[in-house]
Every structure is written in C-alpha cells, then in structure tokens.
Design a protein that fits this description.
heterodimer, A: 149 residues, mainly alpha, 62% helix, B: 354 residues, two-stranded antiparallel ribbon, two-stranded antiparallel sheet, 3% strand
Chain lengths: 149, 354
C-alpha cells in the first residue's frame, strides 16, 4: 500500500518537467530565433480588430452562479454514493434492503430539490418572468401583431 | 479471475525498475498519441469534407503535427496588456496536468510476469483509482477558468465562464453514471471492474458493462464529450461567437499546451470508456489467469484497438454534428441526463434486490 501512488508522483514529476522545460525553452532559448516585436496594437486585447471597449469585468449571467451552487450539493451527494455503491451488494439481503431504502430516501430528497429548482425555473437558461404575471398583465405586455412587425 | 481477488502486487516493497518503466511508458504514450490524434483528426475531417488533408510532410503527412509543433515553438509569445501575468502563464500548465494525469488510473493490459514478479500495466496501483479520476476531472476546470480570466479579453472571459458551467454540470451526470457501474461491478477498483467484464454469455456475447448498463454508458459517453469540450459541446471555444474562447489570447508554447491538454483529455476519456464499459483489455474467449508476456502485449493491443475505434467515433462526431446552443446544453445536462442517471441508480438497486 505504501508504494501504490508513487507511480502517480513520478508521472506528475514527468509532466511538470515537460511543462517547465517547454516553457523555459520557449521563453529563453528560442528567444534568439523567434521574432519579438511587441507593439501597442499587438498587445491590446483582441476584439475583432476594433479598439477594446470597456474592461473585462463584465456582468455575467447570474445562472452561472446558481449552477455552481446546485453543483456543490450534487457533487457531495456523488461522493457519498461512491462508497455506498461499493458495499451495498455485498451485504446480507436484509441490510441490503435497508441500505437501499436509506439511500433512496436521501437521493429522493435531493431529487426533490432538483424538481423544486426546475419548477421555479432556475434550470431555464433564458428565464421568463411572464408566468408570474396575472393574465391581465400578460395581455397588456404582449405586443400586438402590428407592433411586432 | 473472480470478483475481488484482483492480481495482487505485494504492497510493502520498494518500487522496481519495471514499475518506473511502466510510468515512463504511459507518459510517452500519452505524449505520442496527441500528434497522431491531431493528424488523424485532420485526415478524417478531410475525408469527410472531400478534401485531401495534410499529405506533404512525411509519409501520408504523418510528420505534419511535428512541423506544426516546431512552428508553434518559434512563434512570438504575446502576453496581452492588462493580463494577470502569473495566472496567464500558469493556466496552460494547469490545463495540461489533469488531462495528462487521467491516464495514470487506466489498466492498459493484463498483468505480466516479469523477473518472477507480477507487473501491472497501470501507474496508479491503489484501489481508489476512480476517485483520482473524478478529482482530476474536477481540477481540469481551473486551467480553462484561469486562462479565460487572466487574458483580459471579453471573449476569453465568456468562454471560460461557459466552459466552467458546462464541465461542472456534466461532471455530475458522469459521476451518477459511474455509481451505477460500481453497483454492477461491486468495486471502485478499475482492475476489478475489468475482471468483472471477462467471460461471455452463451459463449459469444461478452459480459461488458455496455450491455449490463446501457443507459449509464450513454450518459457517460455524452458527458465525456462535454468534459473534453468537444463538438457538439465545444461552446467554450466556439469560433463563430467567441473567436477562440478561453485561448483567444494564447500563442506559441502556451497555446500548444492547451492543444495538448484537449487531445490528451480526449484520449484519457476514451481509455476510461473502454475500461468501464467495453471490457478494458479483456476480450471474449480469453484464457483465464494467463500471465505470459506475449499475452499481456496482446491485451494491450486489444485495449488500444477499442480505444482507436472510440477515438474515430469522437472525430467523426465532431465533423458531422452541429454545435448545441448553450441553453440546450444545460437542459440536456440537468433536465435529461441527471434525472435519467438517478432513475438508473434506483433501477440498478431494485435489480440487485431480485
């Protein structure tokens, strides 16, 4: 057991060595061979040839944040499911049954959570607020065909 | 080989020459398979689009990737204004390590008897290789996220945001598909999973997990496409909207590292699908308990044949299917694959009770 993961460590050293040698060679050795003519236009962030407008700290869709939150919950669930999947078929039928129902309830609660955010529309990437409006408001906000054209 | 009695390598002894040879061999294979894959991708795409493709450098254009690599090394190395220089340099390396290291958990062939001792053709000998695989898959987000964020470019930023959300979403689908495989094979150890898939039904149908767990196979396969950012899920770098996505500002060696990472991840995923669902290095009609060197090499050949078929499929899919829209991608992941995977776990659990 002690040496089970030494191979992974050696592999990591190989990979790090490859990257370090490659980066160093690229940075210092081939500097004498390659062109190096930085200019203001070349160093500006690429924006299809136009002058960049504004900074990169743009507002991004809040959905990304919701996804990350839901991901954490489900990832923890999977970590719990791995050892469960390993042991559960080896048990005696009675315990197996118990363990199965335990896990089914646990996964069921999480599935309920998924169903909840699904119903709330948080899995919709393009969220529409129209279903929360009253019918009268919906009519008021629907553009007539003339306007739409 | 029955369940649970995987070929044991004695634990408490120093690592031997052949073990290190295996490590270096696997690393060499991963590094060599990438240029071959690039070449194969360009030739097959040319075939599909009725072009010739690269055919000038070396026989059949085989040295084209080498020429490209040399060209990339001599390109100017541009770091854009306002970029976070440290993260900008770190990101390609962070993308490369997990992609290359996933191959460590794969058993590439049957253990062979060499110098009186069993040698496993696998780098990571521990029995929780799958945990390492999941951890490395999770880490692969960082390279892309840092690369996009550090570039100080709006396209790169958007690309990395998309890639992060995509990889995170499909990692769950992947994990859920894995759980049902573990339930069938009763192990999280890849050697045992392969041993569990040896043998046949009725003499000719191999006992592969793809037949025991077809739904898990489909989910894992789709998730593998999304995890490797391949078409039809390459929204992280879709050239029609985001120029190059997270590697828009990268050039020279740093770009080639991203490139390497992408293809290494593709190779590792195919190895993983082969091991989990297509019987790994085993083949129907295989003699049990054989430990000869030639037999071991034969199993390695069988393994790589299966991987090659999968890689061919990956490439053909890329050049025949159009790209998903981002909301479709998310809906497929969260509303289809994850509920299906959960239902599959429940069904597997019920089947185990019978």
């Amino acid at each position: 057991m002690r040496y089970d993961y030494v191979g992974v460590l050696i592999y990591l050293v190989l990979a790090v060595g490859f990257v370090l040698i490659g980066m160093t060679a690229q940075r210092f050795v081939s500097k004498f061979l390659r062109t190096n003519k930085p200019s203001a236009a070349k160093l500006s962030p690429y924006e299809c040839g136009e002058e960049p407008v504004g900074g990169t700290s743009i507002r991004f869709n809040i959905r990304f944040y919701v996804m990350a939150l839901v991901f954490i919950v489900f990832d923890v669930e999977i970590v719990l499911l791995f050892p469960w999947a390993r042991v559960f078929t080896e048990l005696y039928p009675y315990y197996r049954m118990t363990l199965f129902w335990d896990m089914l309830i646990f996964v069921g609660i999480l599935a309920l959570g998924l169903a909840y955010i699904w119903a709330k529309g948080d899995l919709e990437w393009v969220k529409t607020f129209r279903k929360h409006l009253s019918p009268a408001e919906k009519v008021a906000r629907t553009p007539s065909k003339k306007e739409a054209v | 080989m029955g369940r649970g009695n995987r070929p044991v390598v004695k634990g408490d002894k120093a690592i031997r020459f052949w073990d290190i040879a295996v490590v270096i061999g696997v690393f060499a294979v991963v590094m060599q398979i990438v240029p071959l894959l690039v070449w194969a991708e360009r030739r097959i795409s040319a075939l599909i689009q009725d072009r010739v493709g690269p055919n000038r450098v070396g026989p059949f254009g085989l040295f084209q990737p080498l020429a490209d690599a040399i060209k990339l090394l001599f390109k100017e190395d541009v770091i854009p204004d306002g970029a976070d220089r440290f993260l900008f340099v770190l990101a390609p390396a962070l993308a490369f390590f997990p992609a290359a290291m996933t191959a460590t958990v794969i058993p590439f062939g049957a253990p062979m008897l060499i110098g009186g001792e069993m040698l496993q053709l696998q780098v990571c000998r521990g029995n929780v290789g799958m945990m390492l695989f999941m951890a490395l898959t999770g880490l692969s987000v960082y390279g892309i996220a840092f690369g996009g964020w550090a570039s100080n470019n709006k396209y790169a930023m958007l690309g990395s945001l998309r890639a992060s959300a995509q990889v995170l979403s499909y990692e769950i689908a992947m994990g859920i598909a894995l759980v049902s495989v573990f339930m069938t094979s009763q192990s999280v150890d890849l050697n045992t999973i392969v041993a569990d898939q040896t043998g046949t039904w009725m003499g000719f149908v191999p006992k592969w997990n793809v037949l025991k767990q077809p739904l898990a196979f489909v989910i894992f396969f789709i998730a593998a496409f999304a995890e490797t950012n391949r078409l039809p899920f390459d929204l992280a770098e879709c050239e029609a909207e985001l120029v190059g996505g997270y590697h828009t500002e990268y050039s020279s060696m740093k770009f080639s590292l991203f490139f390497l990472a992408e293809y290494a991840a593709m190779f590792s995923s195919c190895c993983m699908i082969t091991t989990l669902f297509l019987g790994g290095w085993s083949f129907p009609g295989m003699p049990a308990g054989e430990t000869g060197k030639l037999f071991s090499l034969l199993t390695v050949a069988v393994f790589f044949t299966k991987v090659a078929v999968l890689l061919f499929f990956f490439i053909v899919v890329r050049w025949t299917l159009p790209r998903f829209r981002f909301d479709q991608l998310m809906h497929l992941g969260w509303k289809t694959l994850i509920p299906l995977g959960l239902a599959n776990i429940a069904a597997t659990g019920v089947a185990a009770q019978l």
